[in-house]
Amino acid sequence: MADDTFDRAPPPATAAVSGGLLATPGAAERLARLLDLGTPVVVTTGAEVLAAARSGRAAAAIVGEDLPDLTALDLCRSLRGGLVGSGLPLIIVSEHFSDPAEEEALEAGADEYVDAAHLGARLVRRLRARLRQAWRRQESNPLTGLPGRGRLDQEILRRLPHPGRLSLVALDVRYFKAFNDRYGYARGDDLLRLVRDILVEVLEEQGEPEDFLAHLGGDDFFLVTCPERDAALVAEMQRRFDRLVPTLYDEADRAAGGVTVFTRAGEERFVPLAYLSAVAVTNQAEDLRHVGQLAAVVAELKEFVRRTENRHLVRDRRQIHEARAAWDRRFAAEGGQQYGRDDSGC
Q1: Structural domain tally of the chain?
Q2: Given Cys at both, which of 88, 134, 195, 314 links 53, Cβ 3.0 to 4.6 Å?
Q3: What is the pTM of this model?
């Protein structure tokens, strides 16, 4: 991740976005067509909405109150309580509108609760603008369905003012480029989905409700948690990755323990099996006041891990300064190369 990972401007919003505008039959579908944000994808069950949201195939959902398998409120709670697709904009269209019902829906996390009897031009304009704003903020990764940069920034800023509540963990697949070069982008996507599945499963089993995952593209994944939990969570994520990633390699490469690729200089190089590297920045040991500071520290930590092939969680700058000094002393004593630049490109 470059120093400006958190600071890049979001892409411009367009009338239609990647992923479908989901709508249930009836008034919800009618509203979706009035919004004119692309042809709606008609779904009939809450399970379809959840599946599309978690796979990144949904841009928003407009649903009636009663679905065959669950109520709109239950659907809303399931979405908001999940790790993947939790930011999907959800509009509930009610045939039996009331103020108490509206209050309950909004408390459950619905973005809008509207009266099916009053789908006028003014409401349509407001909802269209609100969805476009939500898409600009959300930027869910289309491959993994995990939240993107905008929601990651919001989560960081929410925790930064509270010392001891923030651990920003950056997770990368070491040797991901070599895997892509060897097997192609389709299998590279399979590897990224495996990472997504592992991170989600570990948090669902061992995390807390406030833990948060994001995917900024490529192999850049982020976990936002508390400092007292980060080491245990990362260790379990790495353990599962080490167990499962060999299954994505061809049998010969798996037996050899890696793949042979070519460097930028055209030289043949053997690259080991991929592993999950992790660095963490907390607001305990660091005086951090804005997102840009975190980005700079994360970049420094990740560079250190890349140079030294460190397979354990590295937290905060003090730790890498101490480790780097030990590294240089060791190599100086052995007459080897000190901590420096590796231009292999692998």
Answers
A1: 2
A2: 88
A3: 0.62
